Amino acid sequence: MAVQGVGGATGSDASIGKMEAAFDKAIEKSAKITEITTEKKVALDAAKQRPNN
């Protein structure tokens, strides 16, 4: 049986919610950075493959 004191389960739930929000934000930013760097790498690779006349 869980003992609830000051901040009990509600405090834990709020902390977990904040952590989940922070992780979600970090994952979203990481995905955006990956998308941008991938686009730039593709453009660079394409530029390298053009003939230099």
UniProtKB/TrEMBL annotation:
In terms of domain of life, where is this protein from? Bacteria
Its recorded name reads Uncharacterized protein
Source organism phylogeny: Bacteria, Pseudomonadati, Pseudomonadota, Alphaproteobacteria, Hyphomicrobiales
